Amino acid sequence: MQSMIAMVYSEVGMRELIETGLSPERIFLFGLDSQFSVDGLWSVEDSIKELVQLAQTAGLVVAGQALQKRAAPDPSTYMGSGKLKQISEEMDLLDIQTLIVDDELTPGQQRNIEARLPEGIKVIDRTALILDIFAQHAHSREGKLQVELAQYQYRLPRLTRLWTHLVRQAGGRAGGARGGVGLRGPGETQLESDRRLIRKRISSLKNELEDIRIHRRHYRRRRGNSGIPVISLTGYTNAGKSSLLRTLSQEDVLVEDQLFSTLDPLTRLVHLPGGREVLFTDTVGFIKRLPHELIAAFRATFEEIAESDLILHLIDSAHPKADAQVGAVEEVLSELGVKDNTILKVWNKMDKLDHAGCMDNHSVSISALTGEGINRLKKRIESLLQDNMTLVEGLLRYSEGSLLDQIHRQGTIELEEHRHDGTYLRAYVPPVLAVRLRPFITITLSD
Question: Nearest to residue 315, comparing CAs of 362, 354, 277?
Answer without folding.
Answer: 362
